[in-house]
C-alpha cells in the first residue's frame, strides 16, 4: 500500500483485552509501516498477523489487512479467497466510515473544505478520506475480476469515486499551513495521496492478464489529467515516473518479491526482455511463501521468451503453469499447445508432448465463474475445436495469434529486430498456406489471420503502405470468412490506427466508429470495445488540440 518507507520502529504494546488501549493515528501509522516492511521482505503471513488485531478499530490496520487479502485473491483467483477479500474490504470501508466526516455528498467535501476554514476536517478525518479512497479502489480492482460488462461499469464507477476523493485530498494538502505540513502524520498523508496512484499501479501490475484491458477501460473515462499517472505504462516518460516511485523501495528491499516483479514488468514494457527475464528469475528465487507470485513470473517469462521466439524456453514456463497454477487451466494448456505448435515436430516428440491431445483437452478445462465463461477461454476453446475431429486441421502460428490477443505486438514493436523475425515467421506460414494441396475449410481464415499479423508487424516497422495492403486483404475477404469472426472488426480497428499513425485522424475516427457501430457478436467483442474507446479518446484529444472553430462566449 502507500506508506513511505520509514525506519522500522519498535511496535506499540500488544492489545490486551483487559486494558482499553486506543490506537492513535501515529501509532497506527508506525505499526502499519512495520507491517509493510514485513510484507516487502516477503513475510506475508507475519504482516497479516500484525494487522489483524486492530483491523476493526484502526483504519490503517483495516486497509493494510484487506490490501494483503486482495493481492492474495488476485493471485490465487480462488472464489474462496475472492469472497474473503471482499468481506474484508466491506469491513474496512465500515472502519473508515467511523472516522469520516459526515457530509451529504462525497463530492462536496472539497467545496466544504475551501469554503470555511473553521469547518476544516480534522487530521483524523483527512486520513479517513484517504483510507476510504484506497479501500474503494481495491474493491474496484476486485470487481474487475468479474469479467462481465456490469463488473466493468461497477468497477469503473468505484474508481472514479475513489479518484475524486484523492483529488479532494490533494486540495486539502494545498490548503494546509506550512506548520501543519511538517507534522509527521501529515507527511504520511501527503505521501499517501501521491503514492495512492502508485500503489494502484502496483496492484494492476499484479494482474498481468488484465492490465491492458483495465487501462483501455480507464482510457475512455476522459479525465486525462486525473488519470495521466495510470497511463505510465503507455507513454515514454511515464516509465521514469514508475521507476522513480519504485526506487526507494527497491533500494530498501532489494530482494523484495514485489519490487523485483515490478522492475521486471517495467523492463518488459520497455522491450528489455533479457533484463526482465533476469529479474523475474530473481523474483522467483526470492521467496517460497506465496507460490502465486511464482506463477505470475512464469506467465511473464513465457511471454518474454515468446517475444523473442525462443519457443522451448517459453514452453518451459507454460508447462510450469499447467502443472502448478489453478488460475485458468484452459488458457495454460492452450498456450502450451500453441507454443509447441511453433516447434518442429521432432522437437515436440523429444519433449514427450502431443499437441493434438493438448488442444483436445482445452474445452473440458474451461472455468465458469458465477455461471459465466471467461471470454479468452471461450476463444481458446473455439480455436482448439478443429483438433476435435478425427482428422485435425493444424492451427497456423497460434502462439503469435495469442500474442496479438494479449496485446503483445505493441511491446514487441519496440524491438524492430524481433519484429522482423516475427514477420519472417509469418511470411513462411504465408508461403506454406499458399502451397497447400488440400485446402481445408479453415484455409481462408488462416490466410486472413496471417495477413492481419503481418500487417501489424509492418505497421510497427513503419512500412505503412504494405501494412495497409495486408489489412485491406483481410477486410476484402469479409464475406468468405467462416470461423474467425473476430478477424474483420479487429483488422478494421488496426487499419484505423494505421491512419492515425499517418496523421489522417478523421479517416481513423470514421473507420473505428464504423467497427463500433456495425459489428456485433464476434469473439472477444468487449476486448475490442475497450481498445476502441481508448483509441477514440486519444484521437478526441488530438481533435481538441486543433484551433477552435469558434471562441467560447
Ligand atoms: C536493459 O536494462 C538494463 C538495466 O536497466 C540495462 O543495463 C541494459 O543496458 C538494458 N538493455 C537494453 C537492451 O536496453
Automatic annotation (TrEMBL):
<dbReference type="InterPro" id="IPR019412">
    <property type="entry name" value="IML2/TPR_39"/>
</dbReference>
<comment type="similarity">
    <text>Belongs to the TTC39 family.</text>
</comment>
<keyword id="KW-0677">Repeat</keyword>
<protein>
    <recommendedName>
        <fullName>Tetratricopeptide repeat protein 39B</fullName>
    </recommendedName>
</protein>
<dbReference type="GO" id="GO:0006629">
    <property type="term" value="P:lipid metabolic process"/>
</dbReference>
<dbReference type="Pfam" id="PF10300">
    <property type="entry name" value="Iml2-TPR_39"/>
</dbReference>
<dbReference type="InterPro" id="IPR011990">
    <property type="entry name" value="TPR-like_helical_dom_sf"/>
</dbReference>
<keyword id="KW-0443">Lipid metabolism</keyword>
<keyword id="KW-0802">TPR repeat</keyword>
